Amino acid sequence: MVGVLECIMGILRLGWLIRFISHSVISGFTTASAIVIGLSQAKYFLGYDIVRSSKIIPLLKSIIAGIDKFSWPPFVMGSVVLAILLAMKHLGKTRKSLRILRAAGPLTGVVFGTVFVKIFHPSSISVVGEIPQGLPTFSVPKDFSYVVSLIPTAFLITGVAILESVGIAKALAAKNGYELDSNQELVGLGLANICGSFFSAYPTTGSFSRSAVNHESGAKTGVAGIVTGIIMGCALLFLTPLFTDIPQCGLAAIVISAVLGLVDYDEAIFLWNVDKKDFLLWTITFSTTLFLGIEIGVLIGVGVSLAFVIHESANPHIAVLGRLPGTTVYRNVQQYPEAYTYHGIVIVRIDSPIYFANISHIKDRLREYETTVDKSTRRGPEVERVYFVIIEMARKLCSISCN
């Protein structure tokens, strides 16, 4: 279903819709999701089951309610593995000569945990257990009774997948100086998901972190993905017995280490200093995702983002223009205090196309210019009122006589 939706969007050339989803929504959503995912892994650290939920309150209640079942061994092992991962990630980031440590961290943690379990056989530390050997088998879905109930989830996954994949693709395209076709990306994602669905694969998308690691490693083409796929296939065919004794607390530490990088509080601080409106959007998306669930959080964040776009379109910025001394150039008098205007004449620029939703706002503002005294420098003979309002409209100038 996700693949079909993505292909339809790509074929209909709907990639432009992504432009309406601001980075604030993506950042707030990923930050809240990272916290929820991290808490959901706490059961492997604590040694007892907790409720499955995408909301933080039920998770915290479940963790507190079962605290009497707390077990030390998985907590200590998980903490040690997490410390190893964070230390290797830090060294890999800060020292170029040790960059390989960043990618080798998860493997090191898994090997450490597996060796410890094989030597000491602690009964209180749960392990992965037997993993089916071989590649996934081809199968065609036959039971479509769940289609209706999966429609909201399919749309949600499609939206998040597009945001993440196209977002990182645009970043890498800008960094390497090549063009990106969003519609082509959608078709590629859709085909990958349609083909993968016949082998029981998860919905596929591009990953921020994995793409960054791939890029930093020097990968330039899709051959890197082919090599990765071959290695994974060989692991499934021949190496699954090695994974039987991997401690689940070690895998949970890997997940927690990964999601810690998604907690983007720096973005919130940056938005607070730069644009309070974007900070409000980040806060709304973060809070609703954290307390109401991932699905509702995304919908509310996107809805508020679109509401901001509509508000900006319906209330466009209108600038009063003045003439720069010694030139025939007119600029915004608020940005260029040296620009001067003329008595009885107001020249304005509307920084938006004029259409039915904003015409009322524009009329109100133009009426204000007839009565409001402009404090900028004026020239020409003094008059009692404004006689003309001149509107700059791209290639045309519209003069309105104020009778």
TrEMBL record:
Biological process annotations from GO: transmembrane transport
Gene3D superfamilies with a match to the protein in the record: STAS domain (3.30.750.24)
Primary subcellular site in the record, as a coarse category: membrane
Keywords attached to this entry: Membrane, Transmembrane, Transmembrane helix
InterPro entries assigned to the protein according to its UniProt record, in alphabetical order: SLC26A/SulP_dom (IPR011547), SLC26A/SulP_fam (IPR001902), STAS_dom (IPR002645), STAS_dom_sf (IPR036513)
Localization: Membrane
Domain STAS: 335-394
Transmembrane helix is among the record's keywords: yes
Parts of the chain that traverse the membrane: 20-39, 70-88, 100-120, 144-166, 186-203, 223-244, 251-273, 279-310
One term under GO cellular component: membrane
Membrane-related topology note: Multi-pass membrane protein
Descriptive protein name: STAS domain-containing protein
UniProt source species: Kalanchoe fedtschenkoi (Lavender scallops)
